[in-house]
Every structure is written in C-alpha cells, then in structure tokens.
Write a structure and sequence with these properties.
10 strands; eight-stranded mixed beta sheet; 2 domains; alpha/beta
Amino acid sequence: MQIRSVAVIGAGTMGAGIAQVCAQAGWETNLFDAFPEGLERGMKAIDSFWDKGIARGKTSAEQKKEWAANLHPFSDMSEAVSNVDMVIEAVPEIPSLKHQIFADLGKMTKEGCILGTNTSSLSIKAIAQASGRAGDVIGMHFFNPVPIMKLLELVKHDSCTEQTIAFAQAAGAAMGKTTILVKDIPGFATSRLGVVLGNEAIRMLADGVASAKDIDTAMVLGYKHPMGPLALTDLVGLDVRRDILLNLKESFDDDSYTPHPLLEKLVAEGRLGKKSGKGIYDWTSGSAEETELP
C-alpha cells in the first residue's frame, strides 16, 4: 500500500489544503481544477501558506522548496489522474457534479487506484456506484484548514473493501491525521453534530440570548471547543452548513434539521462567512468582528 502519487480534484479552499498536505507527505501531487483562475488561486494559497510558515519560524525555505517540487498544477483531469495511486475529489457539494466526476474517474484511473471523496454529508454509496468501481471508493472528509486540523473522517459504504479502508487509513497517517471510521449515514458523525450545534447557536443569536462573541466564548471556555460554533459556521461557509441541514432534513424526514430563518436570510444576502468577507461576523479586517445582523 505504498503511496507515491496523488491527484486532487478541485483547487478551492479544501482541495488546495488537501493538495498541500499530500505534497508535504512526500507524494507527487497533481492538483486539477476545471477553471484556470481557480487553479491559480489554489496554487497561490498553498504558496502563501508555506511563506507564512517560514515567516513564523514554523518551517524553512528548504522545506518549502522540497514540498513545492512535489506539487504540479493540471488543467486536464485525465492527465492529472491517469497514473496515480490515489485520487481525492474536493469539488462543491453538488451530487450530480460528484457523480459525473466519479463516472469519469472510474474510467480514467488505473486499476487499484483508490478514489476518495471529500464530502461532508452526501451518500458515499451513490458516489461509489457512479464510478463503476464501488469497492475502490471511500469517503475522506477533511476539515478546514486542512494543514492544521488533525482529524480525517473516513466513511465506509457497503461495497467498500477492507483494502480500500486500510489504504485510506495509511494515507491519513502519512498526512499526519488521526482517522476515525464511520458508516455511510447522512451527516456521518462530525457534520451531523456540528450543524445541529451551529443551527442552535444561530437560533440563540436571533433570540437575543447573547452576542455572537459571547455564545462562541461560552463553548470555547466552557466546553474547550477550539472555536465557537458561530465562528466555525463562518469558516465552513453558511451556504455549506445550510445545505447540509437541508440534506439531513430530507434524508431523515425530520423538521428538527430545518435551517433557522436567520441562516437562510444571511445566505440569501450573500453573507456566506469568511470567504465572502461577511457572515455572522465581519471578516474584512482579517479577524472576526461583531457586525449588525439583518
């Protein structure tokens, strides 16, 4: 199960982070994005992360040079994945898009190549079936920011082979991650708990229980969470959290997963969190600042 080469599909925030840790693990890493501007942004984000590490004395220029030599941008998916040992897909949470990508990956990759999907809530079984090679497919749910967060949630479906699971666990360890293994149930373990906590925190904010900062401080200092649920919602993306809640609501036929109206309103106004500059907080200064809510 030695890994020599990896391809990452999608150069957004998650894809770029995954490609970064793969390059740092010493693997030849091909980063593909269908949009040239997205690929350029992803490569620049990785370079900037490494430069910040050097400036803070966490890493060296020699390490950056070594890691950068492992990282290769691709604008053709078939070329990026044709001879790699593992592919990790990190495109938006759109089922039809993921299914089409895995249908293509099933044909483009070599026999025995492991296919991972970085979804936080979609059915791994459905994605695996689209590939035509279900046994080779596994959920690999990373957390943002990928280079810093230590958890990797692996999601197995009924057709996932023990070899695929072992391969993914070994890959996670090589990337410096602690892996957990969960069943293919909507929301898995982390998203199901996280979005419920975040939705309730938004309800408390809308009800005037406390300020966003104080609600977050309660969980950071009272329960030792590294980040409060509202700041985390901004970091993940309000639209992403909303979509996960809607998926859980439909999957379980349970109205308790209904997104709070304030969450829906913020998404409708384009206040998606840190990536858009504003969400529950104002991030335009680079840190979370209290802001007026609609």
